[in-house]
Amino acid sequence: MSTTVPLLAARELVKAHGRTEALRGASLELRAGEILAVTGASGSGKSTLLHCLAGIVRPDGGSVSYAGEQLHTLPEKRLSELRRTEFGVVFQFGQLIPELTALDNVALPLMLAGTARKDARARAQEWLERFGVLAQEALRPGEMSGGQAQRTALARALVTGPKVVFADEPTGALDSLASEQMMTALAHTAGELGTAVLLITHDDQVAAYADREIRLSDGVAVPQEVAA
Fold first, then answer.
1. DSSP reduced 3-state for 193
2. Where does the pLDDT of residue 187 fall: very low under 50, low under 70, confident under 90, or very high at 90 and above?
3. Confidence band, pLDDT 50/70/90 cuts, at residue 16
4. Which residues contact 153 (CB under 8 A, 6 or more apart)?
5. Residue 219 and residue 61 in contact, taking contact as beta carbons nearer than 8 Å
6. pTM of the entire predicted model
7. Nearest CA-CA partner of 24 in 11, 14, 9
8. Which of 18, 84, 120, 174 fits as disulfide partner to 115, beta carbons 3.0 to 4.6 Å?
9. Over the chain, what is the mean pLDDT?
């Protein structure tokens, strides 16, 4: 591994769901500004790994460090603060709030962090425009196409200027064209802003957007060849 101090690092993570061991000593490092793809078969522990790294669940063993803080030991209040300000998350089905418009979905993280509603909505519009969905600002998730909803979810994940974006199968519900548009937008924006991306995917074409790839097998991380 690189001698550069990683922004986010997992060491020997162990996590079980009941009697099922999802992670059995998984380790990885994510450096500032890089896209790291985590691939593997269904049930290999990819989403569990992301949840541990994002502070959504606590591992049963091992450690997770972020910018000098030990995530697995932090109180929930601090973890929530990190998820609001320095982490962004995109899930396979977006998980936008169905009752809110696209504009208000994107503005919400800013308002939760204390930004005035008018300012939050103005910034949200900028991000919707960046991802080509400003015309859908007044639509609710159920009124948008899958690709539009995912790009809205991506805008929501990035609107706070996070240091890390966790993307869990972000193209899993999209067709090939929408998937390509989504990944092009994510890779371009991450590169422009210097945002690190942890990308969970089972799709080799999606993984090709990453700088590096790690494959999970039976809950253990195995480095792959560096992407060209």
1. helix
2. very high
3. very high
4. 90, 91, 94, 95, 96, 105, 170
5. no
6. 0.90
7. 14
8. 120
9. 90
Q: Which ranges constitute the DSSP H helices of 14-116?
A: 46-53, 76-85, 102-112
H helical segments located in the chain = 46-53, 76-85, 102-112, 117-130, 146-158, 176-193, 204-207
In this predicted model, what pLDDT tens digit does every residue of 67-88 receive, in sequence order?
Answer: 989 998 999 999 988 988 899 9
The mean pLDDT of 214-225, rounded to a whole number, is 81
Sequence length of the chain is 228
**Residue 94: what pLDDT?**
65
21 Cβ partners below 8 Å, 6+ apart? 14, 15, 219
Helices 146-158 and 176-193 cross at an angle (nearest 10°) of 10
Contact 71, 25 (CB under 8 A): no
Torsion of the alpha carbons at 196, 198, 201 and 207, rounded to the nearest 10: 40
Report pLDDT for 92. 76
How far, in whole angstroms, is CA 1 from its chain's centroid? 22
Burial class (CB in 10 A: 0-12, 13-18, 19+), 31: middle
* Model pLDDT, residue 225: 55
